[in-house]
Amino acid sequence: MNASITMTTGALKPEDVVAVARHGAQVELGTDALAAIESSRTVIDALVNDTVPHYGVSTGFGALATKQIPIELRAQLQRSLIRSHAASSGTEVPREVVRALMLNRLSTLATGRTGVRPIVATTYAAILNAGITPVIGEYGSLGCSGDLAPLSHAALALMGEGPVRDATGTAMDASEALAAAGITPVVLAEKEGLALVNGTDGMLGMLLIASADLHALLSIADLSAAMSVEGLLGTDAVFAEDLHALRPHPGQRDSASNMRRVLADSTLISEQKSGAHTFTRVQDAYSLRCAPQVHGAVRSTLAHAESVAAIELASAIDNPVVTIDGRVESNGNFHGAPIGYVLDFLAIAVADLASISERRTDRFLDKSRNHGLNAFLADDPGVDSGHMIAQYTAAGIVSELKRLAVPASVDSIPSSAMQEDHVSMGWHAGLKLRKSIDGLARVLAIELLTSARALDMRDGGLESSKSSPIITAVRRQIRTRVEGPGTDRFLSPEIESVFQMVSDGSLLAAANHAAATPLA
Predict the structure, then answer these.
(1) CATH superfamily of 206-412+420-514
(2) What is the mean pLDDT of residues 395-401?
(3) Contact assessment for residue 128 and residue 185, using Cβ atoms and an 8 Å cutoff
(4) What is the rounded CA–CA span in Å between residue 100 and residue 203?
(5) What are 26's strand-pairing partners?
(6) Which residues in the chain are classed under CATH 1.10.275.10?
(7) Which top EC class is given (predicted)?
(8) Counting Cβ atoms within 10 Å, is residue 170 exposed (0-12), middle (13-18) or buried (19+)?
(9) What pLDDT is stored for residue 372 in this prediction?
(10) Calpha distance 229→377 (Å, rounded)
């Protein structure tokens, strides 16, 4: 991607973060940002030789803040901070998370409220643009005083130290990577080490990426639910606009609208209305009938999370901070509670969204509930097992998602000799939400694979499709990678194929291509 994002003293857009983190968009610092950075640095420079203690400039950190540091050791103080705090451990954090973390930290530097020199910000931007990514372990942040260990690894790379990966993903030392990119390492000055590590940038990055993914998955969830309604010979009457106007939650309205559009002009649905088939059900099961209510509640939860993210993107998070009128003040804005809460809230919503999807999949496989289809959608039940174990896979994932829905933010472990005695655990809330999003995509893929098979068994395949135009297009897309019904085959690759189409957007694109307007 050749796109370029100019960073100002104002807020980044969520899509900017995703573009840089996931797609390699370039960044540059605007003139207003550089001027603001230069201005706040003059405030710090005036304190460098002051005998009065100033946190982050002439004192130790955390519980060691009572120790005043001699003038000749104050630059070393910043380097020591970074080296000692780059203490992560465990599985390497994905590249997109690290890049999002770095961009969010650069955004705070661009506000001019941290007191760093312009060379720090411009070099940080150069490292991002060169595709150099520090290697960071998943453990090390408590989500308070910022994402300390992860951000310290990024600052260590700025100093030309520590392990990194270059733009090709090759592991090497930071000094080698910076030299290859023509970047001179920064020798940190007073206040700069602390300014590079005191932020909620990692957890915010994970929230923004997860939000972007969940937007797409919500449209997929509405699509998959509608396919299940059609495949199970349900009714679209319950999705009528006037019914949802009686309970006007915006998310519920949008999901119901999506489902109406997906089911429009479905022959299978119209046959139910016309009495072409024997129809004895007065109402569909909750997993079908209440899909807009559940999906809509997830949409509303996401909207709340995004409102929190928008405030964070417009924030300057550091401690101490250089105020607009030139004071250097300690504060608690680095506490990750606002982000941690919504990360956990989203994990709860994601688990429930997957749960209702799995229930729809299960209905297809039970002969007493699937309205005329073979048991387990098997070609020859008994000889073949059909999608029996695909449902097991979905059930296993849903069970795991319920465990991941247990909030991380309700936990707190005191640290730094009880100076930091209440922490948010927002970083870990972000890591588990990422796993939840992956699980949701797989559960939805299984529902789509199952409903496509069921519809093929009902109408004999695409050549005689009785599905709506949108569902027919989705079935056709699935059939480009997965064969239609038949005797049992190796099922895992078929699940993976549909999962990839869910993840890369091709399945939603197929639906939107057949729709008059894209699904919300």
Answers:
(1) Fumarase/aspartase (Central domain) (1.20.200.10)
(2) 98
(3) no
(4) 9
(5) 4
(6) 4-199
(7) lyase
(8) exposed
(9) 94
(10) 16
Question: Among candidates 134, 100, 50, 315, which has minimal Cα distance to 212?
Answer: 100
HSE toward the beta carbon, residue 419, CA cutoff 13 A: 11
Instruction: List, for residues 431-446, the tens digit of each pLDDT value.
Output: 999 999 999 999 999 9
What is the residue-averaged pLDDT of the chain? 94
- Burial profile 222-236: b = 16 or more Cβ within 10 angstroms, e = fewer: bbbbbbbbbbbbbbb
Residue 8 CB: number of other CB atoms within 10 A? 17
**Residue reference for tokens 């970083």:** 427
CATH code, 4-199? 1.10.275.10
Return all residues near 411 (Cβ < 8 A) that are at least 6 apart: 425
Give span(s): CATH 1.20.200.10, the chain. 206-412+420-514
Q: Give per-residue pLDDT as tens, 110-157.
A: 999 999 999 999 999 999 999 999 999 999 999 988 899 999 999 999
Q: Which has the minimum average pLDDT: 26-35, 269-278, 426-435, 490-499?
A: 269-278
Tokens encoding 165: 């990966």
Task: Give the pLDDT confidence score for residue 426 in this predicted structure.
Answer: 95
Angle subtended at Cα 27 by Cα 16 and Cα 76, rounded to the nearest 5 degrees: 115
* pLDDT in the model for residue 280: 55
Tell whether the model's pLDDT for residue 281 goes beyond 70: no
Measured on CA atoms in the order 442, 448, 452, 454, is the torsion positive or negative? Answer: positive
Just list the catalytic residues: 55
In the Cβ-directed half-sphere of 263, how many Cα atoms lie within 13 Å?
A: 30
